[in-house]
Amino acid sequence: MGGEKSRPVNPPKILSEEWRKMKWNGKNNDLQYIKNYKPHNSELQHLRILLHGPVGAGKSSFINSVDTLLQGRMTSRALADATSAASFTKTYRTFKIQKGGPEVFYPFAFTDIMGLEKTMSHPNEKHRGVKVEDIILAMKGHVKDGYKFNPESSLSEHDHDYNIVPTLNDKVHVLLSVIDASKMEPLCDDIIKQMRTIRLAASAMGIPQMAILTKIDEACPVVKGNMRNVYKSSRLKEQMEKVSVYLGIPLYCIFPVKNYHSETQTDDDVDALILAALKQMIDFGEDYVNNLQTC
Fold first, then answer.
1. Contact assessment for residue 54 and residue 117, using Cβ atoms and an 8 Å cutoff
2. At what angle do helices 27-36 and 268-294 cross, to 10 degrees?
3. Which of 18, 130, 270, 275 has the fewest Cβ atoms nearer than 10 Å?
4. SS3 of 149, please?
5. Which is nearest to 23 in space by CA: 293, 275, 195, 262?
């Protein structure tokens, strides 16, 4: 697993064919699909997609990248930090993306949370990351927006920020694991264990789960040179297979993406990868909510 000693990394190879077919010229179709989406359940205001993963994996940056794509310009609503080793996100915050007028939003929303960190082994050391228990409460809809995470103790039903009677809109409809493709080797067993615990809890609730691998350009030089090599990269294929083994998420539920961070203009190939992942999130979330109606 992730805690094994690092071994020499083989240089990335460009495969002769894409191992997953990608419609690089289908951006407009996928974008129109997103714009036309409306939940079938009339009670649902928005699909809630909860992002979780290690500190610095790119959760907030992914939210900004989706916002940038849909707005057609650079945005930075979810604050991110490029240098801090600790989680920059401290509160439970939901981001709705504007669509048209000032009070019109897309019918899906992203919830950003504090990053996961290694559990401290010494009793005098303080845990700095989000508590697994808080993420499980969030999936059930018990965490109010604006709750400030306490790394040392989880939210209790007696706290002001505890939502006693969550509605369908408060609950999570898709769990998204976010992992930095360029830092897979240092991913320790403890972080993997926490993520698997969260995933198993989501499975028990019937919540669909996906994963995205961020920073794919930093992880593989052949992708940095040409984004369309993403599904021809032997290294990224290996990284995605590792995520599948580590977390138990099927390979077809794992998507490589590049977040916007240094660009000043949008890029069609970057957008195409983000749209492919976003479309799957919406489809999975819609299926989950519809299944709730038939239960």
1. yes
2. 40
3. 18
4. coil
5. 275
Q: Residue 70 CA to chain centroid, in angstroms?
A: 17
pLDDT given for residue 106 in this prediction: 96
Give me the long-range contacts of 245-248 (CB less than 8 A, separation at least 24). Answer: 246/1, 246/2, 246/187, 246/192, 246/195, 246/196, 247/177, 247/192, 247/195, 247/196, 247/199, 247/211, 248/196, 248/199
CA distance 50 to 209: 10
Instruction: Give dist(CA 241, CA 42) in Å, integer.
Output: 38
Residue 86's pLDDT is: 44
pTM, full prediction: 0.90
Q: What is the DSSP letter of 254?
A: E
Distance CA 99, CA 233 (A): 35
| C-alpha distances in Å from residue 3, one per residue of 48, 123, 191, 216 | 32, 22, 10, 21
The whole-angstrom separation of Cα 115 and Cα 192 is 13
Place of tokens 């805690």: 3
**Which residues in the chain come in under a pLDDT of 70?**
1-10, 77-89, 120-127, 186, 293-295
What per-residue confidence (pLDDT) applies to 90?
77
Amino acid (1-letter code) at residue 128: R
Ordered domains of the chain (ranges, CATH):
27-294 (3.40.50.300)
Type of residue numbered 256? P
According to DSSP, the β-strands at 47-52 and 105-112 are parallel
- Say if CB 204 and CB 16 are below 8 A apart: no
DSSP, collapsed to helix, strand or coil, labels residue 82 as: coil
